[in-house]
Write a structure and sequence with these properties.
This protein is an alpha+beta fold. The chain has 2 helices and 5 strands; from the N terminus they run H-E-E-E-E-E-H. The chain crosses the membrane at residues 118-138.
């Protein structure tokens, strides 16, 4: 019973930390989107990286593909390599994608997708909600005092 109360306090603390981190990522993403210009880009290649992580005999991770996109900003053609890769090639070579970039720093750019722009904040928020729900369960279900 005391253990359940202690676990719930720890989980509430983790919930608060994760919620603050999610808010920070959301504010950062929102500010970037508000300041950014949007333009069309074209997928011209992929960078490949082996992100394998071995756990015993089970392989994990594997090859990840990072799209390389050419776009025009401030009158110059530029290249962007996505900072998040996937295990499959999400875009075809030559496919058009939307790119957001900062007009005062056009090298700071990212592919304009919901997950690419808001993904970190959403994952942190979902994790915070899981810890919050677990804290409530430990607090009211297992605490018999």
């Amino acid at each position: 019973m005391k253990i359940a109360h202690s676990v719930s306090k720890i989980f509430f603390g983790l919930t608060a930390v994760l919620a603050v981190a999610a808010a920070g990522y959301a504010v950062s993403a929102g500010l970037f989107i508000m300041r950014a210009e949007i333009t069309a880009g074209e997928v011209v290649a992929y960078e490949e990286s082996d992100r394998s992580i071995q756990f015993g005999t089970a392989p994990g991770g594997g090859m990840h593909f990072f799209p390389v996109v050419e776009y025009t900003a401030v009158g110059e053609t530029r290249r962007l390599t996505a900072d998040r890769g996937t295990q499959e090639r999400r875009y075809a070579i030559g496919q058009q994608v939307m790119v957001r970039y900062l007009p005062d720093n056009p090298q700071r750019a990212r592919i304009a997708t919901l997950w690419g722009e808001w993904g970190a904040a959403l994952v942190l928020l979902f994790t915070a909600l899981l810890f919050g729900a677990s804290a409530l369960v430990f607090r009211f279900r297992f605490d018999e005092s």
